[in-house]
Every structure is written in structure tokens, then in C-alpha cells.
Amino acid sequence: MTETMQQYSQAETNRLIRAELKASYPGTSFTVRACNGAGITQTVIGWEIRYRPTSVEFDGYFSPETCELAAGPSEAEIDALATRYSSWEWTGNDGVRDQAPERLVATETGELPHLVRYGAGNVTAYPRYRNIDL
To answer: What is the pTM of this model?
Structure first.
């Protein structure tokens, strides 16, 4: 770790995540929760993805073949944001995690980027799907 690296706690990292979510998706309500225990640190981002059935084959569950999504952030968009703040990364298919490298981030407008290490551990996107016709 270098002297110029900025280290964020999990609470500080979660505040940064909330601020970015609010700025990027102003009409969407999110939860950002710390889930810690047994030697792990995790942050879970929750939100609602709304869908409408479009096919007679609809079986009561969301499927891209039988439903259309309402406006709002996709799971892939929030996964990408979560990956940026995660301080762990998976190092293969064996389920082993490793500490992610520091990231070069510009935190203030007009300021040069600097090294940052986030303290949220594994950051996960966990949407709730809801049928808007019900």
C-alpha cells in the first residue's frame, strides 16, 4: 500500500455507492446493505425490476421470452457498478477470491486520479422482479 492511496471503510464505500446510484438512476429506489459475518464482508445492492407479461406462455415468472421490462436499470448495469466498488475479485472457477488491486479513480471534478481501495468486500447486485400487471 502506498502513502497516496485512499482507503475507504465499508460504510464510506456504501455511501459512495448510494450517491452514484442516486445520480445515475434518479427515479429508482435502491437499498445498499452491509452483510458481514464469518470472516467475510459483503454489500448487497437491491432494487425492483418491473416487468409485464407479453405472451400467453407466461408461467408466472419473469422470462425474456414471455415478458418485457419496464424502464429502469438492468441487472447488468448494476452488476457493472458493483464490480467497480468490490474489493474482492474471483480468481477462477474454483470459488477462491483474492483482494482486488487498487483502482485509479478521479473523485473530484478537475482533480487528478489517485489510487483507491474500497472496503465493501464483495459487492453484489440482487434485484427483485415484480409483475406490474398484478
So the answer is: 0.81
